[in-house]
Amino acid sequence: MKVVSLFSGAGGLDLGFIRAGHEIIWANDNFLDAVKTYRKNIGDHIICEDISKIPSDKIPNHDILIGGFPCQGFSVANTNRGEHDERNKLYLELLRILAEKQPKFFMAENVKGILSLMRGKIFELIIADFINAGYKVTYKVLNAADFGVPQKRERVIILGVRNDMDFNLAHPEPTHGEISNLFSHKKSWVSIGEALKNIPEPEDQHDLTNHTYSKFKLKFNGYLGNRAIDPNKPSPTVTARGDEKGGVVVLHHPNNHRRMSVRELASTQSFPIDFSFEGSNSSAYRQIGNAVPPLLAFAIASKFPKKLECHVTCKTTSKAISQL
């Protein structure tokens, strides 16, 4: 399936779709460091530009449109969030391209807080917009920890199928749980201690990229970025919130003796160990915090069909056979 990716960032969502066997033919983001990271690790098909300045006819035709549209305006971490936050309007760019290009499927991702914005009214409008664009729409809150990511990260995943498509697109079922279950074949959540156990200290000899960390003083007051980490559980949510120095947003290492390095935070998001980030530490932390965990993205991408011949023709063929 040919995929167009909006708000691609460093490419966490795209990595999952590529691993699932799909082809990213065009991508876009306006954060230069993230675009450089994407080009270095994934490909040159990404455009660094404000999406509102790109006409739809400049975007190639595609089967699937994907995008985790910017969420700062929706997040519960933003105490000033509201319906007039300009960043909340960026989903309209995804909607514009969806309506004008009419791909067979789409997938949109956002923070859980979007569900409660203005008592749910904003989310109702967003879903109505997607339906009016010609799509059957379903949504569900997925926890990345339920798919092997060593992090508790809940996100709303919106799936859409064009109205003329005979295909039932469903959300993936969890492969992991807080406790393993032999009957459901679920594995236990991956703990952050387990995920980082083979990564040496930054001061020790290693050949890892981006294995440097914020020296921002550790605090243990329970607030975001200042929480003691339990090494036997998935980490709290990785965020992109904080100042440009990359301080308070960076989670503590599971040993609680320093903050995580860029390499460790990337592993917390399930990026491959050899995936390298461009820019300063604070820029890399921001790229990681904004990303969709590749393992979660892979689980979602695996629900999309690889080929469409059957889904387009089987309904008619079955009817014809039944009349014989």
Question: What are its keywords?
Answer:
alpha/beta, globular, 15% strand, 9 strands, 324 residues, single chain, Rossmann fold, two-stranded parallel ribbon
Describe what is shown at a glance.
By secondary structure, the chain is an alpha/beta fold.
Protein architecture, described:
The chain has helices at residues 12-19, 32-41, 91-101, 121-132, 192-196, 262-268, 281-290, 294-301, 309-322; strands at 2-6, 23-29, 46-48, 64-67, 105-111, 135-143, 154-162, 176-177, 187-188. With 324 residues, it is α/β, with parallel strands linked by helices. It has a domain at 2-179 and 292-315: Vaccinia Virus protein VP39 (Rossmann fold), CATH 3.40.50. A 7-stranded mixed β-sheet has the order 3-2-1-4-5-7-6, sandwiched between helices. A two-stranded parallel ribbon has the order 8-9. Strand 4, helix 3 and strand 5 form a beta-alpha-beta unit. Helix 1 crosses helix 8. The chain is globular and about 55 Å long.
